[in-house]
Amino acid sequence: MPVRVLAAAMLALEAAGALALVVWQIVALFEGDTVFLTTALALIVLTVVAAGALAAFAVATARDQSWGRSGGIVVQILILAVALGALTGVGADPLTALAIAAPGVIGLVLLVGAVRRAAPQRPDGE
Q1: What is the pLDDT along the chain (126 residues), one digit of tens a residue?
Q2: Distances (CA, A) of 100 to 1, 60, 63, 125
């Protein structure tokens, strides 16, 4: 199986995770678990947009389009930044940081591998 297909699958899983987060946010909204309605709605909209972007990156990566791989790499770096935040500061939790970082690292490795495979071969063999 080509590495780009694995990378696309990882991005699709992350998109599904973002959609699950949307469902969780909507449930919290209806349970009255939010303080500010406008802030909660804005967060839901932004999460839907992120899920859509991840899905688009997954499709583009599966189709071997470079913009999908590039966008996916940016997302993985953002995931790793969030994991670093979960590892440091008040309320730091190493297990949470690891749970966040693991898909980011796997996705980053797969996407970099897909970029390397997509690179044209140079005639001098370098």
Answers
A1: 799 999 999 999 999 999 999 999 999 999 988 889 999 999 999 999 999 999 999 999 999 999 999 999 999 999 999 999 999 988 899 999 999 999 999 999 999 999 998 887 777 755
A2: 26, 24, 27, 38
Distances from the Cα of 87 to the Cαs of 7, 18, 83, 84, in angstroms? 26, 21, 6, 5
Whole-structure pTM value: 0.88
Q: How long a stretch of residues is the chain?
A: 126
Euclidean distance between CA atoms 43 and 72, whole angstroms: 21
Residue 43: closest CA among 60, 29, 62, 54: 29
CB 7 within 8 A of CB 107: yes
